[in-house]
Amino acid sequence: MKELNSIAAYALSALSERGADSASVSAAYVETREFNVDGGEFSLFRTMFDNSLVLTALRDGKKGSAAINHFDNESIINAANSCIAAADASGADKDWEFGPDAGKATFVDGVTKPEMELFFSRCRELVNVIKQEYPKIIIEQLIVSHRSRKQVYINTNGSCFDRYSGSYSLMMMFSAHENGKGSSFFGCGFNTADLSVPFIEQASLRRDLASVEKQIHTKSIPGKFQGTVLVPPGCLGEILYYALGTFADGAAVNSGTSIWKDKLGERVADERLNISLSPCCDDIISGSRWTSDGYLTKKFDLIKNGVLQCFVINKYFANKTGVERSLNYSLENLAVGAGDKAVEEIIKGIDKGLLLGRISGGRPSSSGDFSMVAKNSFIIENGKIGDAVSEVMINGNLAEMLNSIRNISLEKECDGGTSLPWISFDGITISGK
Question: Is the overall model pTM greater than 0.90, yes or no?
Answer without folding.
Answer: yes
